[in-house]
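Thread: Newbie trying to understand structure tokens

Hi all, I'm a second-year student working on a class project, and my supervisor (Dr. K.) asked me to get a predicted structure for one chain before our next meeting. I've only ever worked with sequences, so writing a 3D structure as a token string is new to me. If someone could post the tokens and maybe explain what I'm looking at, I'd be very grateful. Here's the chain:
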Amino acid sequence: MARKQSDYLAALLSEEPAPDTPAPAAASERPPERLRGTTLLGRESALARVASGEVRQVTQLLLDPARVRVWPGNARSYAHLDEARCRELIDSIIAEGGQKVPAVVRRIEGDADHDYEVIAGTRRHWSISWLRGHSYPDMMFVAQVVALDDEAAFRLADLENRARADVSDLERARNYAAALTLHYGNHASRMAERLKVSKGWLSKMLRVASLPEEIVDAFASPAEVQLKSGYAIAQALGDRSTAARIMATAKTLARDQQQRRAQGLVPLPAADVARRLLAAPQDGDDAPPYVWTGPQGRAALTVQTINRQGMTIRLHAGAGADAAMLADALRAALTALEAEGRGLPL
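---
Reply by user tm_fold:
Sure, no problem. This is what the structure looks like when written as tokens:
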């Protein structure tokens, strides 16, 4: 027998998981590909089929996106959305003559500028807002209005994000850490039960959320911090005897990434960043004070020693860096080391 729309939303927000919406496997970081498609279908079905009005005062409306804000309890960072990240969705909305899959919002009070806030559908809100400012001023934001408390809203938003590859592990981890305090009184077991995930998997996500900004800055973007490598780095930082070396390496990598962006070079891959961070404790005191990586991903300039007699700097062949790049790298090295109190002795 076909399930009623009201039954689907009720199951979505109840203690029991919806039968056609499997949670991610506890032993993996993301759902297997064969399950991810099913999860995505379940999510789209959930958001497209709850317009019956029979559950929690569900109402579907056409809204001006300017009057709708984004709920801060959602994992997705609205500030990081742009045309490139939403291009496929924008093109789909144009081709279909409007937004076909409604977002989920709830009514708010006490905000003179907004009437609703988005619980699920942040990219749809951004895309419709962008279209209204780019040749489609009459495009409306399609949303289903539901009455949910914050904890239920969090669970609904989490289900929305589980199948989204463009919601990074770090975004979700930090969202979980905030929700743990806000909704579950810092009881991880209760939170895992409500989300239908394993306690071990949730524990790893919460450890990733604890990564300091210096570590995150070592990656090309926060979106590249994944659960597997992020958890390993968080564990390594728990050892005080090696944490300082990891943090020092992170600062070097962050400088390198910044310089590569300034020169229009390809950023260091996430796998290489994670490998260097995890290898930092084994580098010991022999680790060079500063390393700049060239376009081919190999060391191009290394400050090998700093002492009273001066600095020993090595320029490496075969790193794909020309004279101008090396000159810029040398200036950056001197500036960075000076800022750390390890500059060239005068």
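A couple of things are worth pointing out once you decode it. The radius of gyration is 24 Å. The first strand starts at residue 59 and ends at 63. Feel free to ask follow-ups in this thread.
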